[in-house]
Amino acid sequence: MGDVGFSVSGSAVIIFVGVMVAAGIAVPSLVGSMGALADSQGEQVDRGIDALNTEFEITSATYDQSAEELTLELKNTGSTTLTLEGTSVLVDGDLKAGVTGTGLWLPGDTATVTVTGETTKPARVKVVTENGIAETISDGIGVV
Question: Lowest CB count within 10 Å: 73, 74, 101, 126, which one?
Fold first, then answer.
């Protein structure tokens, strides 16, 4: 009868040790995952704040027929610093690769962006910043 009590106690100890080992393996990976999740949520909040603080306007759009260029003057009226490399231009719905303009686009600054290879005056121009904020102009595109 003494053997039966010991085998039950021994089994309980083995199960307890197994649970502790399993917890020792699982806890570090869970803690690491939770830390990565918290970091990514913080980055998402930062991107959201940048998007809320991003504002700009297209102050002028001029099409030069002889040079086949579209020149845009863009004013950063928000409080987020943007990059011209991260800014996209769509002309009549087509994403343009021939866009020139580099550097930082600071709050209050006006940037000049030139789109080359435009053979006709566009009907609509859309400018999209790196965080998804967009402005469109369809009227007021001047011709030189």
Answer: 73
Taking Cα atoms as reference points, which of 140, 134, 115 lies closest to residue 56?
Answer: 134
pLDDT confidence band for 101 (50 / 70 / 90): low
Summary mean pLDDT of the chain: 86
Query: What pLDDT, on the 0 to 100 scale, is given for residue 47?
Result: 81
The alpha carbon of 23 is separated from its chain's Cα centroid by a whole number of angstroms, namely 38
User: In this structure, what are the phi and psi dihedrals at residue 119, rounded to the nearest 5 degrees?
Assistant: -90, -15
Sequence-distant (≥ 6) Cβ neighbours of residue 65 within 8 angstroms: 121, 143, 144
Q: Is the pTM of this model over 0.90?
A: no
Any bridge partners for residue 69, and if so which? 64, 116
Quote the tokens at residue 123: 């009907």
Please report which confidence band the pLDDT of residue 10 belongs to, taking 50, 70 and 90 as the band edges: confident
- Separation of alpha carbons 30 and 101, rounded Å: 45
